[in-house]
Amino acid sequence: MNMNLLERGAHALEHQDYTSAYQAYRTILNEASQYSATQLGKAHYGLGYIAQLHHDWPNAIDAFQHACKFLPEESAPLLGLANAFNAVLSDIDALTTLRYAHERFGSDDNVSYAYLQQTITMGKTDTSCRLIKQLLSSKQNELFAMVLLDAIKLDQGLIENQHIQRASALIKHYQALPQPNQPLTLASLFYALGELSYQTHDFVIAHKYWQQANTCQRSLCDFNTQNMVPYFESLLALTHVENVYHERTVIPFTPIFIVSLPRTGSSLLAHQLVQHDTDHIANAGEVTYLSEIVNWLCQQTQHPYPACLAHLTPTLINTARNMYAQRIGIHRHNTAFIIDKLPANFQSIPMIVRLFPEAHIIHLTRAYANTAMSIMRNSFGANEPYFCDEEELFIYMNHYHQTMMHFTQLYSEHIIPVRYEALVQDLKDELEMIFTRLGLILNVKMDKDHPAITDTSIRTLSALQARQPIYQTSIELAPYWQSHFMRFDHISTAHKKPT
Question: In a 3-state reduction of DSSP, which class is residue 182?
Fold first, then answer.
């Protein structure tokens, strides 16, 4: 009977029946005397997993901590605990947990890789390098490919000829197999060799590798950007609606939304804002809380976004405000402001204004040619065609540009425009402008080229770049890239509605 309950919980989890799984695991814990330590540990782990899925991080932490106690010979509870700590921005706790996991299970490459990613996000470069050296010998080809890319971005000196030879051999091996086969591993290998070629200024070869990487990722996409045309047309059809300032529930902070395209410097900007006023500003990073609440409002009104905007009641607005405050509040640490920097939130600006008229929206832009080149050379987790296909990206950027021109006209009083190029060239002036708009004072003496760096975590592709001293080469394109990507800059001068 004991094992049946565990099996029942596992079966329910597999079929996403979380209520039944929860009941099975709770029954085991309520009858603890009838079960072994291992069985109790698995029940705690199951509850932690369910809490994690529902973003119930306090209960996830509690459950995983109990699972660690009952399952000392298993690494999964420690990995789950570290993930939960990260979710509530307890970075030091996550690092401590993963360091301990690595000490206990150092031969487990998956544990070492999790520890590596934690050290990268926290800027622990020396430890990252040691872990990379270990993991470049991993027998897991997929893990090797991902670590190779990390190594090249962190320190090219970590790469030896044997690693390049192994990458080349793996590419030939996978390409010889029937398609599709390991497209993400292939993509990682292509991105890695492309980055290596880029750093040695062999731009033609780098571009070839990146195109091959993009092709691998494109094969995983199940839609085209053209499918989004009706949606973007509905955004352009929105008109300014007088925001009725009825009595809204008070939330204990003011949201700051940084909206942008990917690879425009949002990690750099958020990092700088926090490090220059940690008493008032926290950074939740790229979280999906807003989109989840938009989906909930669509369900409640029975209208898709953006049509649902016309059907929001004061009760729905206040409920949504409270939901958002509760979810993102775990990242806040009692600060007056918190940053939500998911790039795709640009589509939700009308909803942001309706739900949070007090919010500040920073629209961060970067020259489209530079942005396009940076997107094509980086691997994104989501299988979205406009992040791995130049033609799809060109269409998407047109829609983005037209949408933001329209929203800027409608909601100019809510939007703070910031250009990446200005941020890089005049960091202090740009930060002073933003702080003034926030009602804060930038009172930290800064060296323009070497601003103070604090020990904050960065959980995006820019984890390494955002920590480096500000350098202006990031706003320049070599002639080869100018000739290939300059058409993207014409988007900003186009007035014709994209088709």
Answer: coil
Cα–Cα distance, 118 to 94 (Å, whole number): 8
- Rounded to an integer, what distance in angstroms lies between the CA atom of residue 281 and that of residue 465? 21
CA angle 291, 297, 299 (to 5 degrees): 110
Give pLDDT, residue 410: 95
- Which segments in the chain show pLDDT lower than 50? 1-2, 447-455, 461-463, 466-467, 495-499
Reference 350, options 301, 307, 303; nearest CA is 307
Q: Does domain 1-74 have CATH number 3.40.50.80?
A: no
Token readout for 438 is 């926030």
Q: Are 389 and 214 in contact (CB under 8 A)?
A: yes
Within the chain, which residue ranges are assigned CATH 1.25.40.10?
1-74
Phi, psi dihedrals of residue 284, rounded to the nearest 5°: -80, -15
Amino acid in the structure at residue 5: L
The pLDDT tens digits of the residues spanning 312-370 come to 999 999 999 999 999 898 887 789 999 999 999 999 999 999 999 999 999 999 999 99
Write down the CATH superfamily of domain 228-493. Answer: P-loop containing nucleotide triphosphate hydrolases (3.40.50.300)
Query: Which distant-in-sequence residues (6+ apart) come within 8 Å of 498 by Cβ?
Result: 232, 395, 398, 399, 402
**Burial letters 454-484, b for 16+ CB under 10 A, else e:** eebbbbbbbbbbbbeebeeebbebeeebeeb
Least Cα distance to 28 among 14, 38, 18 occurs for 38
CA 287 to chain centre: 7
DSSP structure class, residue 308: G
pLDDT tens across 70-96, in order? 999 999 999 999 999 998 878 899 999
**DSSP letters for 408-428:** HHHSGGGEEEEEHHHHHH-HH
Cβ atoms of 281 and 274 closer than 8 Å: yes
Nearest Cα to Cα of residue 97 among 87, 286, 59 = 87
State which amino acid sits at residue 132.
Answer: I
Burial of 42 (0-12, 13-18, 19+ CB in 10 A): buried
Q: Where exactly does CATH 3.40.50.300 map onto the chain?
A: 228-493
